[in-house]
Specification:
By secondary structure, this protein is mostly beta strands. It folds into 2 domains: about 140 residues, no CATH class; about 120 residues, Immunoglobulin-like, CATH 2.60.40.10. The protein contains 2 helices and 22 strands.
Length: about 375
């Protein structure tokens, strides 16, 4: 079979250009690189000095560091490689960060991996500004990277083929420090609790009881005793046993005021529970009224007289009980009840009947 000239030329062109067409497709594929997958993302506890691992444990206020490996097995160079990581802001007992490495000419276009930080209680992580860095294959610092790895990601440029062109990106995050609930500072407390005196017939009183309370930084120092007659003993350190003699009969109200030191300052406490009233009368036993903090006044008399207790009052009684001198006769029968009255009536009726018959019998026999 004879071939025409045109057909011969077509076969010749196909023979010459076929090898060139076959070489064109592999050349295009050779321009693509790859992003190595697998366990490429790890984390370490910086505060505790642990190695990179996954997962890692941390507690409040500690710092962790994440590190991702970018390796291109080839055959082509990776261009415009972008590294992006998520860092959940919500508090949880386990925080999972996901890293994604992508490139314009990678096949596939991106690779992802995760790293986990476990907490004993619900905590969160916060990216540490200025902590993102680009490292070489030997962990040597190449340059710092701008913040934004946890937002749109950071661009590290091109990554060549082979182990020597391997790159690492690392950044740090802080475990949040919950603000502890402040322990309320206890309020200093202080009080004058009791003040009792005894009185003698020579118009002399003696302090028998004096008590105070101080807590939460308050410290008792001394006391002032106002004797109620215009005289006051100040800064008394040994209150119990203090005495005072009055120049005349009358009623005197005594008041003890306790001094305390609080935060370097002098403060005082008094009150009705640290007040007394004494009354002197010629040829009569002195009377002391003790007032207590429950607004109840106890009236105590000295020398065997009576003692009365009244609420919200201060009164005294010196009268002794007198024996009864007259016995009055009853003006009415004792009420013995309805049954007893009926019985008495029946007895009286029978006795009357018998008496009447006895009277009639004597008249009949006479």
């Amino acid at each position: 079979m004879k071939l025409t000239l045109s057909r011969r030329l077509s076969l010749l062109a196909l023979t010459l250009f076929a090898p060139l067409i076959a070489l064109t497709a592999p050349a295009i594929a050779a321009n693509e690189g790859q992003i190595e997958g697998g366990n490429i993302y790890r984390v370490r506890n910086v505060t505790k000095g642990t190695d990179f691992t996954d997962p890692v444990n941390a507690i409040a206020c500690e710092r962790v560091q994440y590190k991702v490996r970018i390796h291109n097995p080839g055959p082509g160079e990776l261009s415009q490689v972008n590294v992006q990581a998520t860092l959940p802001a919500s508090a949880a007992t386990s925080n999972t960060s996901t890293v994604t490495v992508s490139s314009q000419n990678a096949s596939p276009a991106s690779t992802s991996d995760t790293a986990v930080v476990n907490f004993p209680t619900a905590l969160s992580l916060t990216y540490l500004p200025g902590s993102t860095q680009l490292l070489d294959a030997n962990d040597g610092l190449l340059r710092g990277l701008p913040d934004g790895i946890t937002a749109g990601g950071v661009n590290i440029g091109n990554v060549g083929v082979s182990i020597a062109q391997k790159r690492f990106v690392q950044f740090s995050a802080d475990v949040n420090c919950p603000t502890p609930t402040p322990t309320p500072t206890p309020t200093p407390s202080y009080s004058c609790d009791a003040f009792d005196i005894t009185a003698n017939n020579n118009r002399t009183v003696n302090v028998a009881v004096f008590t105070t309370s101080a807590a939460n930084g308050a410290v008792y120092k001394s006391a002032d005793i106002n004797w109620g007659d215009g005289k006051t003993d100040s800064a008394v350190t040994n209150v119990v046993g203090s005495t005072h003699t009055y120049g005349a009969d009358g009623s005197y109200t005594l008041q003890a005021t306790a001094h305390f030191t609080v935060d370097g300052k002098d403060v005082t406490a008094a009150g009705a529970q640290c007040a007394e009233k004494v009354t002197f009368k010629t040829n009569e036993t002195p009377v002391v009224i003790h007032t207590i903090s429950t607004n109840t006044s106890s009236t105590i008399t000295v020398g065997g007289n009576t003692s009365n207790t009244t609420n919200n009052s201060s009164s005294t009684t010196n009268n002794q009980a007198s024996p009864a001198t007259n016995l009055e006769r009853p003006t009415a029968l004792v009420n013995t009840g309805a049954g007893s009255v009926a019985t008495l009536f029946a007895v009286a009726t029978i006795a009357g009947t018998l008496g009447h018959r006895f009277y009639l019998g004597r008249r009949f026999n006479s």
